[in-house]
């Protein structure tokens, strides 16, 4: 018996679906994948890294973000949109 594949989602469909779910997902090549939640220890590590990198980049035209942003890399097609 042949396996069935799910239809690919458009970026617009994914964004509409994501607005209705409390969980976060990653979007890649028309498919969505559930993203796991972070532990307090993980968040502490991320905070320390953001502070360290942010301090070194303070006088430069860069920004450091910890998380919770949706991004799309056009060159690779990778997206958290």
Task: Quickly describe the structure.
With 81 residues, the chain is α+β, with helices and mostly antiparallel strands.
Strand order of the biggest β-sheet: 1-2
How many DSSP H or I helices?
2
Summed over residues and divided by their number, the pLDDT gives a mean of 85
Shape: elongated
Spans where pLDDT lies below 50 across 5 or more residues: none
Summarize the biggest pleated sheet.
2 strands, antiparallel
Structural descriptors:
2 helices, alpha+beta, 81 residues
Structure write-up:
By secondary structure, this protein is of the alpha+beta class. The protein has one domain. The chain contains two helices and two strands; from the N terminus they run αββα. It has a two-stranded antiparallel sheet. Strand 1 and strand 2 (31-34) form a beta hairpin. The longest helix is centred in the middle third of the chain and has 17 residues, at 40-56. The protein starts with 10 loop residues before the first helix and ends in a 25-residue tail after the last helix. The mean pLDDT is 85.
List the helices and strands and how they pair.
Layout: H1 11-19, E1 25-28, E2 31-34, H2 40-56
Antiparallel strand pairs: 1-2
